[in-house]
Amino acid sequence: MIMPILKYGAPELKTVSEPITVFDRELETIARNMTETLYCAPGIGLAAPQIGLNIRLSTIDLTVGEDPSQLIVICNPEIVLAEGEQRSEEGCLSVPEFTDTVTRPRRMRIRGQNIHGEPVQYEAGDLLARCFSHEIDHLNGILFIDRLSSLKKTLIRNKIKKLAKAGSW
Ligand SMILES: [Zn+2]
Q1: Residues labelled as active-site residues
Q2: How remote is the CA of residue 131 from the centroid of ligand 1, in Å?
Q3: For residue 162, how far is its CA from the centre of ligand 1 (angstroms)?
Q4: What is the pLDDT of residues 20-31, one digit of tens each?
Q5: How far is the CA of 135 from the centre of ligand 1 (A)?
Q6: What is the 3-state secondary structure of the chain?
Q7: What is the pLDDT of residues 116-126, one digit of tens each?
């Protein structure tokens, strides 16, 4: 099922999400819905708070469904190691139409659990490292615009306020 994606302004996007402790059918359904929503958007990463669920679950697929073997469904992701730096243009399905340059680690080691609760670990570089960093931020109630300078952040916020006033946010 394709779920509506919450936009900047929704309180769920500012909330620190809860760890997942129960790995059941319901969780599998949520993950499947998130994957379908991600591919439909289309996007390369989606975190549960973006569909209004404050649980530590994220789906990532750099191929946007082109290669199903590349799909990552991760529960309770944690950063074990973060190295280097990369600066690149970034956007977010919850902040549509806006992009800006965000600094992220170049390499990351991520550990977490798969949908069955089994431990998993990923060595991520470049775009995948950026994506993990962005998704883990979501689980901590942080959006990419929170990582911009206060001036840029204010500019984007004001534009969004205008859009919201016009009923187009
Ligand atoms: Zn995002």
Answers
A1: 135
A2: 9
A3: 21
A4: 999 999 999 999
A5: 6
A6: CCCCCCCCCCHHHHCCCECCCCCCHHHHHHHHHHHHHHHHCCCCEEEHHHHCCCECEEEECCCCCCCHHHCEEEEEEEEEEEECCEEEEEECCCCCCCEEEEEECCEEEEEEECCCCCEEEEEEEHHHHHHHHHHHHHHCCCCHHHHCCHHHHHHHHHHHHHHHHCCCC
A7: 999 999 999 99
